[in-house]
Amino acid sequence: MGARDGPTLITSVQRAFRLLEAVSAHENGAPAKQLARETELPLATAYHLLRTLVHDGYVRKLDDGGFILGDKMQTLQTQGRGQALLSRVRPTLAALRDELASAAYLTFYEEGEIRVAEIVDGPRAPRVDLWVGFEDAGHATALGKSVLRELDEESRNDYLARHALADLTPRTITSRRQLLRSLASSPMAPAVTDLEEYSLGTVCVAVPVYSGDTLGSLGVSLPAERLPRLDEVLTRLIPTANRVTRSLSLTI
Q1: What is the distance between the alpha carbons of residues 116 and 42, in angstroms, rounded to a whole number?
Q2: How far is CA 133 from CA 86, 113, 130, 200, 251, in A?
Q3: Distance separating the N- and C-terminal Cα atoms of the chain
Q4: Name one Pfam family in it (predicted).
Q5: Which of 2, 91, 144, 218 could form a disulfide with 241 if both were Cys (CB 3.0 to 4.6 A apart)?
């Protein structure tokens, strides 16, 4: 195989990454001349690349002429940490899906919203049709109600004040008083159920999980005819939630 048969590499991209690595090595910033010297780049090339990185937010230029990493790099780092955390628990969710033949869901309460972080489904365990976003259906899903049940009163009231209790099916709870009463008296606590309240023909059960101080929920969806087997589902769901919390609490 000839030397030209290898992968096609973009030199300018490689140079930009070398500059980012050099910038990250200087906590208090470094001037372009120093960065060019450390990366063995022509000064003009370093200037052009730094100008582009500054424009796009990956690098920030200080008043003294030094360069430090920009806000976009911090965002990438945060998102990368989140991906790494999810990669830890994905096999556990897949095992739960296979054991129960049910789609598994993981949500987190972030910035005042209940957001789906991961769904693990398959041909034998299809996900529920997400015809209404979970952010707008916390009152009608087991995943959302699990989070609402665990929130402190102030946070729960804040969420409910910002989200209408939309009538998604004939079984959806649309009364705030009734919803709060059902959360306080869940017969399967710490588990919470959704009995065709989000989608007719589908029931869900969820329990709380934590990623550090961040509250979330782990749940599965089932055809309504499997409702009599809910106790059996819980015997597997609760230990799995404990394992997920332990995995998410490990420091990367």
Answers
A1: 47
A2: 21, 11, 6, 16, 31
A3: 41
A4: HTH_IclR
A5: 218
According to DSSP, residue 157 is labeled H
Bridge partner list, 223 = 202
pLDDT in tens, 194-208: 999 999 999 999 999
Q: How far, in Å, CA of 35 to CA of 38, rounded?
A: 5
Domain spans, the chain = 3-69, 80-249
CB atoms within 10 A of CB 223: 12
CATH domain 80-249 topology: Beta-Lactamase (3.30.450)
Q: How far apart are CA 184 and CA 52, in angstroms?
A: 55
Beta strands in 27-180 (DSSP E): 59-61, 67-69, 103-110, 113-120
- What CA–CA distance (Å, rounded) separates 83 from 203? 29
* Residues 177, 173: Cα–Cα separation, whole Å: 10
81-132 tens-digit pLDDT:
556 666 788 899 999 999 999 999 999 998 899 999 899 999 999 999 888 8
Two tokens at 56? 């796009």
Label each residue of 43-73 as H, E or C. Answer: HHHHHHHHHHHHHCCCEEECCCCCEEECHHH
**Is 3-69's fold the same as 80-249's?**
no
pLDDT level of residue 135 (50, 70, 90 thresholds): confident
Q: Which residues in 173-203 are b (16+ Cβ under 10 Å) and which e?
A: beeeeebbebbeeeeeeebbbbebbbbeebb
CA distance 60 to 67: 6
- Give the domain 3-69 fold: Arc Repressor Mutant, subunit A (1.10.10)
